[in-house]
Amino acid sequence: MFPQQRSGSLDGNVLHKLGLHAGCMREADGTPDALFFQQLILPIHHIDNDKVLTVPDNPRKGFYSNVSHWTNLYTVGDLGTFGGGYGQDFESTSPSELLKWDGTVVMDGVLGGSNGSFLSHFQTREGNESYHAGISKTFAKSRWLELKRSECTSPDSARPRS
């Protein structure tokens, strides 16, 4: 699941430097703070930017900021189907929106997987047991599909991530 350059091991000193302490491991209600751990593994913000959330000698590499950057470039450039006069405008994506997109896919797995019928989570028709309010409130079905068609992870990859 992770590229070779992301391999590593847990190091207590590094985790402490990155902000890990007993208080940040749990939400106010006692549940684990999943976003803190997600941010450790796949950072949402630019790691190289010394103006925001800096940690000296941060060993992590940016993830969602890079995915957002390359998705936007890929969609209007290489993919060429959005924003090129075809009647389909593309609203630029952001790292936080892509985190939500990944969250919907993870939620699908938590629900047991939809075996290819992920879009049924958006359908509000009567009797649809696959409908999930959390997923359908996070995105409009059309925006979810737009991001699925356009997501690209790096300049080397000319293919969608999903």
Order of helices and strands: HHHHHH
Structural class: mainly alpha
Strand content: under 5%
Give unreliable regions as ranges.
157-162
Structural write-up:
With 162 residues, this protein is mainly alpha-helical. The chain folds into two domains: 1-62, no CATH class; 64-150, no CATH class. 38% of the residues lie in helices and 0% in strands. The protein is built from six helices and no strands. Helix 3 (64-79) packs across helix 4. The radius of gyration is 18 Å and the shape is globular.
Overview features:
single chain, 162 residues, mainly alpha, 2 domains, 38% helix, 0% strand, disordered C terminus
In brief, what are we looking at here?
By secondary structure, the chain is mainly α. The protein is 38% helix and 0% strand. The protein has two domains: 1-62, no CATH class; 64-150, no CATH class.
Walk me through the topology:
Elements lengths: L11 H6 L16 H8 L22 H16 L15 H16 L22 H6 L2 H10 L12
Helix pairs in contact: 3-4
